[in-house]
Amino acid sequence: MRTKDEILEASAAQSAIQRNMKVFIMLLVVANVVMLVHVGQLLYARFVKFPDTAFLGTTDAQSVCAPIGLDEPMVADAVARDFAVEAIRSISTYDWTSWRDQINSSTAQYMTLDARNSYRISVNDWGIIRDVVNRYQNATAQQRGPATIQRQGVVLQKDGTGRYEWEIVVPMTLVYRNATDKRTENRDFYAKIIRTAKSPLNPKGIAVGGLVSSQPVQVDAQATARGTTQ
């Protein structure tokens, strides 16, 4: 039988073990919380908004310069034109089996949130989508002429800030084909390219802020018609 002192020592040791376990568990919880916060910051920077810096170092590490604001172009006009062509070609490429997923993926890659939501809503009203599905077709887009910048400059936004924008016209030929048939349609796409915050997924810092299309005016046909009526 253990003595009273042995029992007290064993009880004190047990209490110390329990106290140490509580401290360890508390430290483990704190460490997990800190780790989760850090992971959340990394995911936010990776997929939502890359953190801005007050200054950028130069290659020779002897001077610094301020980052380019959203009211400045940052990229050359040719880069903006090529981006518009690439975005329109990707967004206009889909097939009759997976058109919704393909359009959702391409708009998420190239468009701002507001623009992609508006575009996806309008897709549901397109008769062309029904034709592609009913005829088991694949849709692709081919550039048929040079992209031209109609307007560019700083535009005041709803939040009162200014952003640099390009309004670019891209002539495209839409091609719809299946195993037995092929048809084409010429359309002019009007893309609004706007400056956005840079991120690892968007290193250029530009995105499509709006996209509409229309059939081109047949100038030759109109001239011929006027000549005939005269």
Describe it.
It is a single chain. With 230 residues, the protein is an alpha+beta fold. The chain is built from 6 helices and 8 strands. The protein has helices at 4-47, 77-91, 99-110, 113-123, 127-134, 219-229, and strands at 56-57, 64-65, 94-95, 138-143, 148-156, 162-177, 182-195, 206-214. A hairpin with a 4-residue loop joins strand 6 and strand 7. Helix 3 (99-110) packs antiparallel against helix 4. The longest helix has 44 residues, at 4-47. It is elongated and about 110 Å long. Mean pLDDT is 83; it is low at 54-61 and 221-230.
CATH-wise, what's the superfamily of the largest domain? VirB8 protein
Radius of gyration based on Cα positions? 30 Å
* Number of DSSP-assigned strands: 8
Number of helices: 6
> What's the helical proportion of residues?
40-55%
Provide the structure class: alpha+beta
| Mean pLDDT score | 83
SSE order, one letter for each helix or strand: HEEHEHHHEEEEEH
CATH fold title of the largest domain: Nuclear Transport Factor 2, Chain: A
* Largest sheet entry: 6 strands, antiparallel
**Can you name the CATH architecture of the largest domain?**
Roll
Key attributes of the depicted protein:
230 residues, Nuclear Transport Factor 2, Chain: A, 2 domains, 6-stranded antiparallel sheet, 6 helices
Ordered list of secondary-structure elements with their pairings:
Elements lengths: L3 H44 L8 E2 L6 E2 L11 H15 L2 E2 L3 H12 L2 H11 L3 H8 L3 E6 L4 E9 L5 E16 L4 E14 L10 E9 L4 H11 L1
Antiparallel strand pairs: 1-2, 3-4, 4-6, 5-6, 6-7, 7-8
Helix pairs in contact: 3-4
